[in-house]
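Schema walk-through. Below, the input block comes first and the output block second. Nothing else is stored per chain. Lengths vary across the set, and this one has 971 residues.
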Amino acid sequence: MVSIAAVAAASYAPIAISQTDEKSDLHIDAQDLAASLQALATATGREILFRSESVAGKRATALEGRFSPAEALTILLKESGLHYRENGKSFVIVGRSEASTALGDGADDANTLFVTGSRIRGADAPGSSVIRIDRKAIGESGYASAQQILQSIPQAYGGGANETTSGATGASGANLNSSYGSSINLRGLGPASTLVLLNGNRPALGGSGGVFADISMLPVSAIERIEVLPDGASAIYGSDAVAGVVNLITRRDYEGAETALRYGTADGDFSEIQASQIVGTKWRSGRAVLAVEYYRRGSLAASDRDYATQDLRRWGGSDYRAQFANPGNIVAGGQTYAIPAGQDGTSLVASDLVTGTLNRHDGWEQADLLPRQTRYSAYGRVEQDVTDRLTVDVEGLYARRTFSRRVNPAGYQSSVTITPDNPYYVDPIGTGRAISVRYDFTDELGPRTDQGKVEGLGFNAGGTLRLGGWSIDLRGTYGRQTENFGTINLPNTARLVVAGASSDPAIALNLFGDGQNNSASVLDYIRGSTQSRFRSTIWSGAVRGDGPLIDLPGGQARLALGAEHRDERFTSRTLSDQSRLEPFISTSGTQGARNIEAVYGEFFVPIIGEENTLPAIQSLSVSSAVRHEKYNDFGTTTNPKFGLSWKPVTGLEFKGSFGTSFRAPGFVELRQTPDSDVFFIYPVSDPLSPTGTSNVMYYRGNKTGMQPEKARTFTLGFVLEPEMLPGLRLASTYFDIRYKDQIVDLTSALLQMLNNRATYAALINDNPSLEMLQNYINSPNFIDYFGLEAADVDIFIDARTQNLAVTRQKGIDFEAQYRFPAGGGEARFGFDGTYLFRFTRAASALAPAIDILNSINNPVDLRLRGHGGWTSGSFSALASVNYVCGYENTIVSPAEHVDAWTTVDAQIGYRFEAKGGALHGVSLALSATNLFDKDPPYAAFSFNGITAVGYDPQNASPLGRVVSLQLTKAW
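--- output ---
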């Protein structure tokens, strides 16, 4: 085993003066990395050890401000592909080929972090490329949340659970996001197929089914960097890592204090305030950090956006405004009669009504596009060396988020039956029978409003023991997320029946006027609500170790081994006052508990290294990993992964990976309760019907015996950083994903299934028996929307959630970055993007593969983000361009084209150079996202044909231009 001293003496360039851990005011120009390291050592008095050949040809960005030595070194190394570790008071700079030597002596490596995608310290993800968003990039983004930051990368797709899609679509699990959380959806394969980690550990899941990690709960001020691995990684992490892994890494090594205040506004339509404080300290044998953050954002009213309407005729679309209006519409004898405006319903007579007329109501008039959100969060960590070889640590996260949103009532309304006993009864056809009234209660009860709070709590504690070159970690993790979600101002459907038939003036319902015509007693009687609580908990324990295995001519082979136990639970409880005469408690929602046992191993082998290079092979390494898991609810699964890295010459690397991944069925998908299966009849468009419409009975629920989803992933890429042109980086990765047995929620496809018969042929029964249909109608779970009988049904569709789909995706990720000296500072330009060659889905293994690329509810083929900036001394400026290409809106028929959308973000920053006084350590940043206030492109975005809005919330934001000013003070 080679000691640090021996390594330093033999092949490292040491730099040292006196030793100090204090923060220093640093002013280092953008230059060669070796020169920057020399300047840092001189300024801080810390010894820095590095191989001359490791830093040759590499450049470092400019460094301006007050930093600790570790903070400064992190910034200088961020573009180099190199890492550092501390040995006492010295820093050792290492790269992958040197990791086996520099980390193999058993010295203090507590600060050596695992890279996302590998369990071996200092090793890159096997054959894969990791996207890193560091603290500087987070600050330059102009965004206030982790979800916004992650959504900006081209590999992310906006569909799924986030606050803009809640209530607008059921695609990708958006209908399970009752508490307006935020997820990340890599590759558009679904949020549940992207694994989210906090410092390498799983958090408790959010949503009404525990199906996604709610990244809105983490304070942005506590994030050091975000690492995104857009590649399958179940061999490393287990379930959910199909499309990739997002690892949020906190500022655990911070020293000093920093206060930040931020205010932003969307041209006065909404505002946001963010305040944060972080403090950190170190002592000889440990360190501690604490970060707290407050964030408040107002709601965005739909009335502030012209395209937020259900009437899309001005753009050539349809009128989706509801027939549930105020004044309302009477339905009698199969005809509609619009109730006239300007009267209170007490003197309305049949002669005032006109056959075939309709009142319509736009549900967006008193609704919000985005909810009001308030969040309090805190993160803390303490680390202590017990001995020279043993370090213990504990960290905790608490977050509390409240929300409120006025919701579009369309799709949640039902007709009210008025009998002749009602004193306001009007019979337009003179039969003396009960009539039906379609009425909107918003003006009388108030807007239907979702409101509630979410609390998240997480603890992680463990110890790291260093034995020789091995590091052994024993760790326990606990996480809990509790969501309390309620809806107020709902009409109670059971009491509506009573009030519609009552002759008692205290509760008799008047639905025949215009505006507010019912007394407070009547409204109090019919007013309903719901209140639900969802709780997700996770316990896990793990033991893992990694270290050198054997010395090879190419370097040191390294091995990682581990075992994990995880306990996951989800409970739900609902207090409903919406459908019965009296409130009742239901616990028949999603419930579940499971235990998971896992063992894994990872092996890294350097075949060719610095000591045995060959022509055209400067280095060659392979890696392999395998993970075996046992679930108590569905069985076992084993997933391998293999990686290859080949560097033919300095500055050029080729890499590739192959592996399998899986996603375990979620509790909401395994749910089997007496009321989880429902049946209903709905008239839908049918090209094969002589009338153009067929009455379809739908069977909804979860099919029994669901198995995990499975995927096979393959990547091949390169990274080029030519020595002849320092500062240039070119990289590209080809990826190929085959994802089968996907568990499909058909909510968003229900009304289009007959227009795509070949796709859903296995689920469609064109000749259902009357006996089967009648049995389903007689079921207590049958919902009668239209009063249709078994004989009226033309087609039966089994639309239960089940293992169905096979998805195939191929594409490339690419980037180009160039940094160079300019004007006394450093300029940088670049772009990164994702281009999809193929995205097809078959509804089942036997169904034809349908091209869904560039169609609504699915990713587009091209997303780009370009940037250009300049930094010099105290001043910085950056501009970014975001591009989403056009696509087809296949929700409507015929399909409509949705235009491409291009927006520009910009930021200018200034750091005061004062050596003392109030301005010491102060910096300002003025940011603008969507600088030119570009509206989203028009799209007739319809949810099941019931309601609509004039833009696609999955591919565009309704915020418009947001201008923010941030003040930061380092103490």
